[in-house]
Amino acid sequence: MMSATTTTAEPVIEAFGTGVHRLAGADRYETAVAISKRFAAGVPVLYVATGLNFPDGLTAAAAAAKAGGPLLLTRGDAIPEVVRAEIVRLAPKRIVVAGSDAVITPAVYDQLAGLTPQVSRFGGNDRYQTGELVVGSAFTSATEAFIATGADFPDALAASAAAGAIGAPVFLVEGLAQSARSSTITAMKSLGVRTVRIAGSAGAVSEGIARQLSSEGFTVLRHEGADRYLTATAINQAVFRSTSSAVGSAFLATGIEFADALSGAALAGALGSPLYLTRATCIPYPAWNALREMAPPARVILGSTGVVGDAVAQNTACATDWAKPANGRITSTFGPREPICTSGGCTSSFHAGVDLATGCNAPIYAATSGKVSTAGWVGTYGNFIKIAHASSIDTGYAHLVDGGIRVKVGQTVSVGQLIGYSGTTGASTGCHLHFEVYQNGTRIDPVPFLSARGVTLG
Asked: How many CA atoms lie within 13 A of 114 on its CB side?
């Protein structure tokens, strides 16, 4: 047994030894119990949320992590017997019910009251008010906060674990609105929040909300990716790379459903561990690469093999798909160029990539998933991006327009993600994309390489 680091004293969580562990049950309620069993009896608090919907559990997970207690799920009209038995074992000093009477009925509340010395409910008129009430009950101060859309669950799952790890609350917002509720702004200011981390792209939480937060004096950081898997990876990279201690474990949960990750986020947050989203049959490359770099001694799979398969437990990365990096025909191929002859003699050169006639300011895309290793001016390449991929493969994108690079060194990108815009910088005589492929550091002909992967450059 080991003590978890939280802002309250002395909860005890069973340590994960080196290797892969699976916490699972026959359904979402049993899986939540399997997760809860990592906590010793006598926890300071137990949070309870509905297992039928996600919003209340998202804010409750970060609150539970801060308090050093688990999060259990219940049906709205009755406590599953396996959950009741776990509550008896936990013997919590108090229970917090996240959700209104319409979500968790008075009958369930009364049953919970019979299992603990103290029980309280925090439920509002909607998911946003409920979240604010849960946060207000659990936090007296915080320098950082996460916000996520309340309309969907994926972005907030990883955010809840990350928030729990740094002692931050999670607020839900109406993501497509152009401003957050005034009550949310007031709540963050009353806690002393200075930095707000947005989970997800502008398609999830609008730029209007980001501008509003900035105008209110908050430092705003957005953690986003091209999909839910990349967004979770971006959140974890931002939060856990800034911590001073090594991560002892990392959690993986399905990105298709919310239930297992709700209780898992409370445990992960209490342990100071990241939670990644995964497909059922393989780990998306960005998450796989981040885990490879992080190298946690323990990996924890949440859910049964029907939800997260054995291939994930065996650290199987999803195949990296490939795509054409830009539209346009090939105007210069890989290989020796025609000699250029003058009165002083002839000179020859070697073209180490292919040129695509994109025109000016055309979008340039990552040919496949990977990590940006170069993003800036490189000699005759002008504005240049280089991306490292699996199996010692790199791709290069040259002559981008000034101000046209849309990625940063160290950023993980996915196949088809916008990375920049074409231009004519460096040794270029017209707007185009010079595209290169490197294998073990040596530049090779991109045309047959991509053809073998089902992509036609011409």
From this structure: 8
Gap between the terminal Cα atoms of the chain: 60
- Position of tokens 């196949």? 415
Q: Which residues of 346-379 are buried (b: 16+ CB within 10 A; e: fewer)?
A: eeeeeebbbbbbbeeebebbbbbbbbbebbeeee
pLDDT digit string, tens, across residues 89-133? 999 999 999 999 999 999 999 999 999 999 999 999 999 999 999
Q: How far is CA 378 from CA 287, 306, 374, in A?
A: 29, 48, 9
Of the CATH numbers 1.20.1260.10, 3.40.50.2000, 2.40.50.320, 2.70.70.10, which one belongs to the domain with range 330-451? 2.70.70.10
What confidence tens digit (pLDDT) does each residue in 390-424 have? 888 999 999 999 999 999 999 989 888 889 999 99
Domain range summary for the chain, segments of one domain joined by +: 21-313, 330-451
> Distance between CA 233 and CA 235 in Å, rounded?
5
Find the length of the chain.
Answer: 458
pTM for the predicted model, two decimal places: 0.76
Residue 76 makes CB contacts below 8 A (sequence gap 6+) with 50, 52, 103, 104, 105, 108
298 Ramachandran zone, left/alpha/beta (phi>0; psi -120 to 50) = beta
